[in-house]
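Here we describe the complex-level prediction in full. Unlike the single-chain runs in Section 2.1, the two entities below were treated as one system.
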Amino acid sequence: MLLVNPFDETKREQGRPAPRLDTLRGKTIALLDISKPGGSVFLDRIEKLLVEKHGVARVIRESKPTYTKPAPPEVLDRIRRAQVHAAIEALAD
Amino acid sequence: MTVKLLAFFETDCPTCRLLLPYLKSLPEVQGISQDDPDSTRGLVEELGLPYQVIIDQNLELSRRYDPEAVPALFLVDNDGRVLRKSVGFDKRDLNELAAALGAGPIAPPYDGNPERKPGCESRHREMQNAEFRMQNTGAAPKPERASRIDVPDDVEWYPDPLPVVPPTVERVDRMLAGVGLDPTEVIARVPPNYGSATVEKIAANAVMAGCRPEMMRVLIPLMRAACDERFNLHGVQATTHFAAPLVIVNGPVRGELGFTGAGNVFSNVARANSTLGRAFQLILTNLGGARPGEIDMSTLGNPGKFSSVIAENEEENPWEQFHVERGLPAGSSAITLFAAEPPRGVSEHQARSGRVILKAICRALATVWTYRACLAFEALVILCPEHVHTLRRDGFSKPKIREFLFENTAIPRKVFDEGHGEGSAHLHLYQEVVVDGEPCYRKFAHPGQIHIVVAGGTAGKFSAVIGSWATGPRGSQMVTYPV
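The structure predicted for the assembly as a whole is:
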């Protein structure tokens, strides 16, 4: 039985994950709040832990305008421009 | 000095379709279509554009002004000098451009459309990029046909729990025969994976769902509507909430293809309703990637994810048809999409008046999302014909019903004394109101959050309320497309 493939065959470039950090010490980390209720409470705690326990030099905070949609390019650009070593996207509810 | 507003657009760009009608009342507008005369004429007629539109199919003007995306608006003086430029849809830009042309504001802040919406890549850039890709890969980007899979007859090749009709080459060819479109044409990119819904892929899924070939007429605009950014299919498909897209069909296409809006409207009563909904869901999972247990992580799901298509029972609707209320011409056909919870029934057989029927509906409306959550949600009220008769007898029009439901749906303030929970964080935004002597908060922010459709059989006094997912520009907005 010869079938027409009904599944997604869109060609995509394979993304590659950024290189992992070997230490958090002295690094700049971005925390992206997806704007769910309680997100800021959770991220406040993470920020404190990153700085106090792991020696992170600087934490920058960004948030999506709404959790219902992907992060808009402006938000990603701001994180990129801040030249962070890593970004953590945080979901909370 | 006289100035002129040049408006570059493509006929298949949702943002262009959103923006162009806003320019209707402005003087000195010159539309510039990047597409062929036929599709341009179609769009101008469909949107009723009163201003002059010229064809720039060879993209000469587009190259000269070089907008990166469309819609693109250029305010130019007599000598063709650009005084101001706006790309995409932006209400503030629109009002400022209107002011520059000596007109009042044209884009009100709360008209149901977002503040801003990005456009599509301008055709001349698409060409440049295609040429660039060609130089770099040595081959033109060929439109892609779907691959063929050869499976033995006795092998279960389809991964979902419900079996499908095998999309054999012959069956898909029959589905494509009457469409009049190139099988490789991409109708939409389906979130959340943004798989390309080509005409051929849509046809293969339509075969699997058991659609008749004429259903392609509805499936194509349905895929455009579903992937309209305002609907936010990405969020609807990826949420843990109950939401599933509900399709509402209006106009002559109901009779032509056999959609029902009468008894059992939410059940498996008509092949057209059932197969359209099933094909739509197959496309969302097979091309969009929102397969349950993978990207679709809904906590409880929704039976509507098998199929969820209703027609309005226009024959029993004494008021304006739903799609006409949504801005389409009477006599046209349309589909509307709503990110819907499952229906909650409102049984009211004893009420002697329309007022008491509406009071019962208010109680159900109060439970949308959850009892204590106000302002951020919408609802679809499905009125059954027997309730409609009583309401009409009592002098209720659709606007009066909507106003009544808005005024009378309220949450008693005392329930917030039960402790912190849904709604607690937003109490400062809630509007205090007294309903029937009880201090309350209003459930809805404005009457426009309540949508009214007439459907169901002529026997039985059962209406229904269907709640929304997150709504407005920060959630999913209802969209209506012509068929």
